[in-house]
Automatic annotation (TrEMBL):
Pfam families: Isochorismatase. Gene3D superfamilies: Isochorismatase-like. GO terms for molecular function: hydrolase activity. This is Nicotinamidase-related amidase. InterPro entries: Isochorismatase-like_dom (IPR000868), Isochorismatase-like_hydrls (IPR050272), Isochorismatase-like_sf (IPR036380).
């Protein structure tokens, strides 16, 4: 009797993954070209960074897939479709140019690509799914629930959340790890997303992981 060759072990599937969006110098650092409207002396800025760091540490502690999404363009912006104000303003400011300090991750929120299932994806639109392998990565890992956070709330966070929900994912927004230049816009975006996603703080989002196991 001929035995079939042993099958390779299947990698474990993860119900939940974390998306960390745009934690980059030009967007988050007080010397960045875009920023989120929070000065170095503003306690709110420190709170956002601390919450983002807690989310990243929590994902690592729980061995969750952790996907860092960064936005970056060529120095001449030939790869930037300037069809709306936010992209035209990016080029005008000379922001998030590839291979510059501004496009790099904020020091306290750096990815660790030596970890299994901790990845970095570059994109060039407002949704983290457009033009990236994000959906294929999540599908391969068996992910059905996303914890999403980043800057700015009303841009990459909301657009990625809406895209994820349309693709069938359950979504939790870690609100205290998100920010916008105007707190009213931040709050309005969170209210808008309540129709689609659970809005929680980082502690609650991490504590509820068992619900999605």
């Amino acid at each position: 009797m001929v035995r079939s060759p042993a099958l390779s072990s299947t990698p474990p599937l993860h119900r939940t993954a974390v998306l960390a969006l745009h934690y980059q110098n030009d967007i988050l650092h007080p010397d960045g070209k875009i920023r989120v409207g929070l000065s170095a002396s503003d306690p709110a800025r420190d709170r956002v960074i601390a919450a983002a760091a807690k989310l990243i540490a929590g994902a690592r502690h729980a061995a969750l897939p952790l996907i860092h999404v960064r936005i970056a363009f060529r120095p001449d912006y030939a790869d930037l479709t300037q069809n709306c104000w936010i992209f035209r303003k990016t080029a005008e400011l000379g922001a998030v140019q590839e291979n510059t300090w501004g496009a790099s991750f904020y020091e306290a929120l750096q990815p660790d690509e030596t970890r299994e299932h901790e990845l970095v994806i570059r994109h060039q639109r407002t949704s983290a799914f457009i033009g990236t392998p994000l959906e294929q990565i999540l599908m391969k890992l068996g992910v059905r629930h996303l914890i999403v956070a980043g800057v700015a709330t009303h841009s990459v966070v909301e657009m990625s959340v809406r895209h994820a929900v349309d693709l069938g994912y359950e979504v939790t927004v870690a609100a205290d790890a998100c920010a916008a230049a105007d707190t009213k816009i931040h709050d309005a975006s969170l209210d808008s997303m309540r129709l689609l996603a659970e809005i929680a703080d980082v502690d609650t989002a991490l504590a509820q992981l068992e619900k999605h196991a």
